[in-house]
Amino acid sequence: MKLSVKPLHALFVAEVSGIDLSAALDNSVLEGIVRASDRYAVLVFRNQHLDDAQQIAFSAHFGPLETSIKQLRPDHRFRLDPQVADISNLDAQGKLLPCADRNRMYGLGDRLWHTDSSFKAIPAKYSLLSARAIPAKGGETQFTDLRAAYDALPEDVRTQIEDLVAEHSILYSRSTIGFTDFSPEERAGLAPVPQKLVRVHPGSQRKTLYLASHAMGIRGMPIPEARLLLTDLMEHATRSQFVYTHRWQLGDLVMWDDRCTMHRARPYDMAQVRDMHRTTVSDVASTLDQLVFPTPLARSKLRGIPKGAK
Ligand code: OGA
Ligand code: MN
Prior knowledge:
The chain is of the alpha+beta class. Helix content is 25%, strand content 24%. The protein has helices at 27-40, 52-59, 102-107, 146-151, 155-161, 170-175, 184-189, 223-237, 296-303; strands at 4-7, 14-17, 42-45, 85-88, 124-133, 141-145, 165-168, 193-196, 198-201, 206-209, 215-218, 243-246, 253-257, 261-265, 275-282. A hairpin with a 6-residue loop joins strand 1 and strand 2. It is globular and about 45 Å long. 33% of the residues are buried. Manganese (II) ion (MN) binds next to loops.
């Protein structure tokens, strides 16, 4: 298999072709995908008609998979395997959800800019979303490049935010659109978690903002000041030059790096079916506990080894 990688945006995002994701893939192909992902952060694979088992098998090459937080609700009826997030407007029987249904209201939170699972102590590394049914229009997914957004910040802002730690909570982000229907078990299981506001993306060694609508405060900063800073950063990071809009075709699988991007869903006609299945690969540790491996150049400086010496 020979991978071909074609950029779809000036800063990030590429279409990867020449590959069948349902086939057995050898290490060189998987490494090629990781390399492309490290460079482009969002990879689009077209014409991949995967079933859930095939999507799980492909995703599991990249690390352990998350399971649904809906397991915190014992009464939740799953349509899909708990390793596959149900990003649809369907109930457990595959029928359209009524307009004011809790699951539909909960799902509307995906329309806020976010990165997956930043509200978990160990957040997501990659998300893989496959299009099984799509509406005739609307329902796009937008992505934003948080490494490029970081690079474009003024120097004084970069210095100001370098060591800041944000608190992330999905209860908070849902509350901003008026959704507060969480059980005591969910409230206990989804308490706010700390995440670095600036992190180093391991595969590229580039610094990146790590932001989401889940960010509700900053440690050691008064709440109004923190929220205003977060609002300014969100506004900056979602300026049009950093944004790619994905218009779905049936059979698309989009794999994105949650460590250095945000995304959001766009509206569509809820009388039509939109059925997307997401698998999510966990990161290795909280952003606070991740070791940052210096580049060879930085390492040689640390050790005082002259450049070029072995
Ligand atoms: C997700 C998500 C956006 C969409 O699957 O994590 O936010 O367009 N999806 O459905
Ligand atoms: Mn998401």
